[in-house]
Amino acid sequence: MAGGYQVDLNEMGTLITTLQQAKDRMTDANKALGDSTPSDMGSREIDSAGAEFQDRWKYGIGKIAEFSGAVVDGLTKAKQAYADVESEAIAALGQSPSGQPSPTPVTTTPAPTGAQSVITDRLGGGAS
Question: Is residue 21 one of the residues assigned to a domain?
Fold first, then answer.
């Protein structure tokens, strides 16, 4: 397609799945971190650093999970919109999803016995 672009719905689906998995993993990591306490780490200095890290990590990972979820939602809607447009275009153009024209019934009136076909006449094969 000259000057345009093409959307691969299968690849878009793969991206959506990958982002959803990333969101889930980030959420799980935050839960696991939340289940531990800074005092589980050892000395007072480590406890303090651990508490600070835990707060920052929880906030940052929470934001990544939130944004990943928003991207997943947007991509899912976009994928469905592309699929709908493609289906509507196929229906409007009378083509199958494989790009082959859909068969349309053709009705013809048989030529009278002994008469030549229109094609034969046009090719100059008619009797003169």
Answer: yes
| DSSP conformation letters of 53-92 | HHHHHHHHHHHHHHHHHHHHHHHHHHHHHHHHHHHHHHHH
> For the chain, what percentages of helix, strand and coil (3-state, to nearest 5) are there?
65, 0, 30
- pLDDT classification of 44: cutoffs 50, 70, 90: confident
Q: Which residue segment(s) compose the domain that 63 sits in? A: 9-103
Q: Is the dihedral of CA 60, 62, 63, 69 positive or negative?
A: positive
Q: Judge whether 69 lies within some domain.
A: yes
- pLDDT category, 42, cuts 50, 70, 90? low
Instruction: Tell me the mean pLDDT in the region 66-82.
Output: 91
Q: Is the dihedral of CA 75, 78, 80, 82 positive or negative?
A: negative
Q: What is the dihedral of CA 101, 82, 7, 99, to 10 degrees?
A: -10
Does residue 17 lie in a domain region?
yes
Torsion angles phi and psi, residue 115, rounded to 5: -85, 155
Number of domains present in the structure of the chain: 1
Residue 85 lies in a domain: yes
